[in-house]
Design goal:
Number of strands: 5
Structural class: alpha+beta
Oligomer: single chain
Order of helices and strands: EEEEHEH
Distance between the termini: 18 Å
Strand content: 35-45%
Length: 88
């Protein structure tokens, strides 16, 4: 999605703003990571979040090793970072 273009919330139809958030990443009802500075669209009225598809894929790449560790590992916090070399 183009950041310059206005986005409308699919839940309440209100305007959305592009920002960064702290995102808990869950896998099979287990919190596996807390990722900081994730780019997202957030509804100004209801707070619904929308991640662009590339962000969703990037989150999956960032936390894949944490998913393998599951409940046996303390919940890590990690910054959101570009992983374009993995996505290409």
């Amino acid at each position: 999605m183009d950041k310059a273009r206005m986005h409308t919330c699919s839940v309440c139809k209100s305007p959305m703003v592009h920002t960064t958030v702290e995102h808990p990443y869950w896998y099979d009802n287990v919190l596996v990571a807390l990722v900081h500075d994730v780019p997202t669209w957030v509804c100004q009225l209801c707070g619904h979040r929308y991640f662009d598809p590339t962000v969703e894929t990037t989150l999956q790449v960032i936390v894949k090793d944490y998913i393998k560790l599951g409940k046996t590992f303390p919940i890590p916090t990690t910054p959101y970072r570009a992983v374009s070399s993995v996505l290409n």
